[in-house]
Amino acid sequence: MLQRRCCRVLAALMMVFFMTTVVMAGGHGEKLSKKVGILLVAFGSSEDSAQVSFENIDRKVKQAYPDIPVRWAYTSHIIRKKLAKEGRILDSPEVALAKMRDERFTHVAVASLHTIGGAEYHDLRRSVGAFKVMGGFEHVILAYPLLATQEDMERVVDAILATIPKERQKDEAVVLMGHGTHHPSNAFYAALMFQLQLKDPNIFVGTVEGYPGLDLIQSMMLEKKIKKAFLVPFMSVAGDHAKNDMAGDEEDSWKSILTKAGIDCVPVLKGTAEFDEFVDIWVDHVGGPLSHF
User: What is the pTM (predicted TM-score) of this model?
Assistant: First the structure.
């Protein structure tokens, strides 16, 4: 899997290298006037209901930096391909950056809309690094994902506590579903649960493809004799994972597994990016690269 990802990134960067070389050659080495831009990069989603999350991020970023043009890119090739068949064209980060160079941007803040600095984030980091090496911009800097520092962790804990369903009682659980990754940054999920439980011991954080898994979360809830749980996506959008893996009717969904164990489940289909409390963290992270321009 890692080898395939590296091959895709290398192929994309080779294409971008030639695109950027042509653009730079066309400029005949002229000195460009300073032009600052923001590139928002998300994993992406083909779910129509997930677009509200991206629209909220777009709106908040443009409110915070009204004089700076904003562009978008999706890291997922599968999602870009699916959207293209529907007539919706989204660029990869590499193509988006090449186009911004063609638009004569000189300074670009690349905003990662990922939750943690996992595999997708580090692929993006390599792509941004390649543009630095090629010299297509005076400055191109990658911002942090949602969770990167202890301050981020504390802000995310506060955001979660502020956005859990109002009707939830203290003896009822809130189970956050993260994506999970093979990358070492998966440790953020367990760290987040630890810091959440210091303030509310009935909030749990599990992952679809990492640690903690649902089996551990279920055993912790059963030990506490919890009878009801609100299932909440800890992802920027309430996309396929939220609708199917978390709230679906299939036997292997989190809702079905926990219901079978005697825990009444209430799915909440809202991504973190639908809430300003989370989006404000991403928006503030954009300011990091911009402060260096």
Answer: 0.88
